[in-house]
Amino acid sequence: MSAHDIRSAVRPDPDQPLVDIADYVVNYQIDSKEAYDTARYMLLDSLGTAMLAMKFPECVKHLGPLVPGATLPGGARVPGTSHELDPVQAAFAIGTQIRWLDFNDTWLAAEWGHPSDNLGSILAVGDYLSRKAEREGSRPLTVRDVLGYAIKAHEIQGCYALLNSFNRVGQDHVILVRLASTAVATAMLGGDKEQITTAVSHSWIDNGALRTYRHAPNTGPRKSWAAGDACRRAVTHAINAVYRGVVGYPSALSAKTWGFYDVAFKGKPFEFERPFGSYVMENVLFKISYPAEFHAQTAVECAMKLHDEVAGRLDQVAKIVIETQEAGCRIIDKTGPLANYADRDHCIQYMVAVPLIFGRLVASDYNDEVAADPRIDALRDRMTVVENPQFTRDYFDPARRYIGNSVQVFFKDGSSTEKVSIDYPIGHRTRRAEGIPVLLRKFEAAMRGHLPAHQVQAIMAAAENPARLDAMPLHHFLGLFTL
């Protein structure tokens, strides 16, 4: 029978993308010092972002057991809390904490995303396994182990994102969080290549969440826990593959009519720019200064530069022109009433108006009490957002990966500010030397805002010595964040 005969029950070999992920996770040896150094900063930054999220009750209410009493003493802990949970629910909680404020790292290409979302699965499974190992007298996982798994999760998510646009078919980027987390969590649990292939096939069979919760008119807070949901599902697939021995689905992608390509990707197979290595971690973008959707980061920087010139003349503003990339136009150019926090932190006009008025953009600036200031919507009404083709070209250029924006303010008397243009934000690889000290200040401030002083002191002492931090058992390190 033909391979395309849907009546044939002949089981094919696994699709090559499934095999390539399994081979990479099991066999690839990471030898990049830059990748490990960047991963270490990524871990600290993500935990800091999680601590900042603890100030928001809408986040905190998601962090406990799924139902009251469903705890697991000796299980996986949720940083900044006293919760001990099974690793599936802990993955949801940690992924939700890290992602809540839209302040963790970012990757931008044909698909967008936040690779540190995968720490939800990695830290939950890692803490569970490390504590279990100590109880049983075997070797616990170290922080170094976790950094290696994080590098691989970043690489899987980021390499898929380079040429494959899931947003173009209406799917949310957390489909790649589930994919990458499934692969590394299965390996962490002791899975071999076959089990990783099986787990990954289940991840694709899940299909994807719709992006509608990120876009007008339905923007809402699900976008802040969607990555946690992907992490939770990933750990479930990993457990099923390793502990339950579930059957895999080798042509989950390519099966005619019923596979992912035909059902969800317009019949197109995935494309890849490069083999898996450590490229993504080395080039990942940090959100250091502003909790803003990343396509607007440099727009916020531009607005901050213009604050002193504009703040005293708000009633004289005639027009504000924002130039951005095509992706920025498509995702965050938004008019009309903004219903909630999630609506505002995905509106480039709002994210420019606040720094022009106040000279700042912090997480609480998306709350209702700040949004009620009539000057914000008055400025938004005067804004025009247009694509700058050069920004778009530089955005997709693999040698640059810029995220450019410009802002210029025009006044009623015919005068104007200069056109302030910034190609890449402080979190870009080319600004690492400038950015890392700011990242560490962000991290320490986040710790001091939520944890007792003696714990902050111990955390900062560990962070100051990379070799000692790498060698720490993971559960000892995460214990420093436990209340």
Could you please describe the fold and organization of this structure?
This is 2-methylcitrate dehydratase. Pathway: Organic acid metabolism; propanoate degradation; Carbohydrate metabolism; tricarboxylic acid cycle; isocitrate from oxaloacetate: step 2/2. InterPro entries: 2Me_IsoCit_deHydtase_PrpD, MmgE/PrpD_sf, MmgE/PrpD_sf_1, MmgE/PrpD_sf_2, MmgE_PrpD, MmgE_PrpD_C, MmgE_PrpD_N. Residues 20-272 form the MmgE/PrpD N-terminal domain. The chain is α+β, with helices and mostly antiparallel strands and 483 residues long. It has two domains: 16-286, 2-methylcitrate dehydratase PrpD (Orthogonal Bundle), CATH 1.10.4100; 294-425, 2-methylcitrate dehydratase PrpD (60s Ribosomal Protein L30, Chain: A). 51% of the residues lie in helices and 6% in strands. β3 and β4 (112-113) form a beta hairpin. α7 (174-188) packs antiparallel against α8. 52% of the residues are buried.
Class from secondary-structure proportions:
alpha+beta
The CATH class of the largest domain turns out to be Mainly Alpha
How many angstroms separate the termini? Answer: 62 Å
Question: Which CATH architecture of the largest domain?
Answer: Orthogonal Bundle
Number of strands: 8
Provide the residue-averaged pLDDT: 96
Strand content: 5-15%
> What's the main sheet like?
4 strands, mixed
Helix content: 40-55%
The order of strands across the largest sheet is: 6-5-7-8
Radius of gyration: 23 Å
Give the overall silhouette: globular
Domain MmgE/PrpD N-terminal: 20-272
Family: Belongs to the PrpD family.
Pfam families: MmgE_PrpD_C, MmgE_PrpD_N
Keywords: Lyase, Tricarboxylic acid cycle
